[in-house]
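Morning!

This is the sequence you dropped in the shared folder:
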Amino acid sequence: VASGAELTVTAFDLIKLPFQDKIDQIINEAGLRFVPDYKYAGGEYDIVLDCGARSLAIPGLRITKGIVELTRTGAEVFQRENLAVPCVSVDDSKLKNFECIYGTGEAFLRAFKNLSGQDPTKKKFVVFGFGKIGLGATNALRAYTEEIIVVEADKKRIEAAKEAGFEA
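The structure's back. Tokens below.
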């Protein structure tokens, strides 16, 4: 915005935060074009910053330069599409790898302790998925317990979990 770009912000239906009204207010106070329901955000845009490939559900959306996708799931959806523009997957970046494996694991532990009021030491955990998020959670948990079971559908990830010392 400071460099003269026109920015439109919309909200997808993936998650509604408890303080969503405050977020919406800040966006409006910043003078940004805000479309609260993504179904009405159609039009022509140079670049779309997406999460979960939800922009594919926006009627009348035309993207002229490219897409930046935050999630692995969304990147896989875009790979199957016949896109007229390039899609950059943030999930493929080293920074996202670092954030998911280390930051998410630590955040999970803080949330577990704060929300449950329990110490994770010697507790049993079942972790569903052994992608970056599951790897981060299991790595953080292993400092507290050896009783971690990984549930995963992908055979390569099952083997990776076993090689890392987890029951999978």
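Headline: The two ends are 48 Å apart (CA to CA).

More detail when I'm at my desk.
O.
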